[in-house]
Amino acid sequence: MNTLMLLAQPDGPPGGGGVFASPLFPVFLIGLMLLFWVVVILPMSRRQKREQEQMLASLKRGMKVLTNAGIIGVIVTAKEGDDEIVIRSEDTKLRLRRNVVVQVLGSDDTEAGKS
Q1: CA pair distance 102, 23, nearest whole angstrom
Q2: pTM value?
Q3: CB 93, CB 86: distance < 8 Å
Q4: 19-33: per-residue pLDDT in tens?
Q5: How far apart are CA 84 and CA 80, in angstroms?
Q6: Which fold has domain 59-112?
Q7: Whether 102 contacts 70, CB under 8 Å
Q8: Are 74 and 104 within 8 A, CB to CB?
């Protein structure tokens, strides 16, 4: 009977919840998330923004690009300091803003020469 009584008793002190029952636990959790954001997410987003700005500044004629709408084309006109570029995709010329370019896929000088 004594062994049954020992097995039936809960482990640990009665009424204790450990660390999770502390009233400061939510504050600790919020602080931990804030630290993660400052150490990991903020520097990563700054680096991505800097790389995107460098890529947009380096756009020039003959580069094959992908836009955020999924259009793949070759840059026909890209003036330094101008916010617009002209790309050729198949038989169509499109005038777009530089910031819609998502990725540079390489250069294709043969298609850029066809105007």
Answers
A1: 47
A2: 0.62
A3: yes
A4: 677 888 899 999 999
A5: 10
A6: SH3 type barrels. (2.30.30)
A7: no
A8: no
Per domain, the residue ranges of the chain are 22-57, 59-112
Would you put residue 47 in left (φ > 0), alpha (ψ -120 to 50) or beta?
alpha
User: What whole-number distance in Å separates Cα of residue 99 and Cα of residue 87?
Assistant: 13
Q: How far is CA 29 from CA 11, 16, 21, 77, 111, in A?
A: 26, 20, 13, 52, 55
Please state, in angstroms and as integers, the Cα–Cα distance from residue 97 to each residue in 65, 100, 110, following that order.
13, 6, 23
Name the pLDDT band for 112 (thresholds 50, 70, 90). Answer: very low
**CB neighbours (10 Å) of residue 77?**
16
Tokens 């002190």 found at: 13
